DNA sequence: AGTTGGTTAAACCATTTAGTTAAACCAATT
DNA sequence: AATTGGTTTAACTAAATGGTTTAACCAACT
């Protein structure tokens, strides 16, 4: 029992690393087994197929990210604080997991059917809470009545996630060193709140 | 000679479709050959390896996109007009090529080494021109002196490209139909210029 | 009529890959 | 001492895959 959980978990952790690093199509079961320090038989013993293992991994990662994003919403902060905190923490987090954004985007676009149940399963709870918060601020006259909370959410995520996903391109196109690229991205922690908050109050 | 060009081009066009649809790892040479109406031998006769074919495709796509983005800059429009026009045209374009963003992000992140020469080859010309334009507006006192043109560029691209790359997730998370998702994205053509322009003039 | 270059057909190769099987092993449990 | 469940070893299958080879085909060119 103890061993079982250890192994099952270690497989999941290792599989996550490999899938994130190489994508579903690029990942090899043998590679996962080796890296987890077990053999292929055992891998298939726990997760019968590659698809199984992948969806298990993806679901876990997806839920982690989503609760990361929406746990803030539950904390009853004001919208303004929420946005400030989010950019700081989220960009910091992504800079430490640089392949995560591209992995997410790639797999969700490549196998939408496979993953759509995972997406749907994630509750509207967080989203509802976020919409409510936006509504409150509207009624308090602090922000534009026409603002669509979904658009706001998309904007926030776009501005924080995309640049990190596309980092290698920026590095080469702007002729930057790794440190300079990192610096450029890190500076966004302060730039983005200003920009997004301005888009709420003005107009 | 005539035939050669026809075929070589048809291969490239077909390979582009397949690579964009399935990614480098997911794409199959046989599939490309079949879809191009030729046999595998001929495919390898023109582009010896899969890697060759892929880089040829990617380079072409990359340059098309980049000149799409920067041709506007050459047109001597004001920054404000440029931003308005860009969002309208670019979002419209991407909505017709919905896999393009995810393809780009995925491959650039997965094989940065393979593609870095492609990225570097793309001139700093367009970027320089864009920076100059921003500088002019700074001197005219129209925008914040501290604005980094690279950050502005990243913001513009993030806000337009990312939402389309992540479309399947939004669709499911927001419980939308295809039409509603499309509508949500299309509305951004008007929302984004307002937001981005506000971020230039204020503060 | 003969040459040339693009093209096909089909077999072929070596390797990789996901997944299976069966027997043995070992530690903890009963 | 016997059982059980996780685990290994190692061989194996079946299919797929990138790439090669060889001979023949055909239209245009000389």
Q: Please, could you describe this protein's structure?
A:
The structure is a homodimer of 203-residue chains. Chain A has 203 residues and is an all-alpha fold. Chain A has two domains: 1-48, Homeodomain-like (Arc Repressor Mutant, subunit A); 58-201, Tetracycline Repressor, domain 2. In chain A, 82% of the residues lie in helices and 0% in strands. In chain A, helix 4 (50-74) packs parallel to helix 7 (112-121) and helix 5 runs parallel beside helix 9. The longest helix of chain A has 25 residues, at 2-26. Chain A starts with a helix and ends with a helix. Chains A and B meet through helix 1, helix 6, helix 7, helix 9 and helix 10 of A and helix 1, helix 6, helix 7, helix 9 and helix 10 of B. The first copy, chain A, binds a DNA duplex (30 and 30 nucleotides) through helix 1 and helix 3.
